[in-house]
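Q: Sequence in, structure out?
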Amino acid sequence: MTFNEGNDYRVLVLFQEVLGDVIFKIKDKTGKILYSSEAGEDKPFWDFRVNSTQQLIVHVFVPKVEKTSTQISPQGCISILVGFKPQENISKVKMMK
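A: Exactly. Output:
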């Protein structure tokens, strides 16, 4: 996804609990992890600002779900939402270089 200079962003990942511990990571184009939801964070989102327009990769990892006693595999949905606002309306956000 392309993130433009001068905007504050929020990436939000929501999922149904039946899927287990879904993890999301955001990486730059070199593969460097900029954020990981498994790093003790209980919130399903990451707020940040980019100092220059760049492309970032959002990876979502879903654990393997075991079949229930009825031999039916649980199914569920995952939503990835990206929002932004112009830099002049900021409150407190993390800075990203």
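The radius of gyration is 16 Å.
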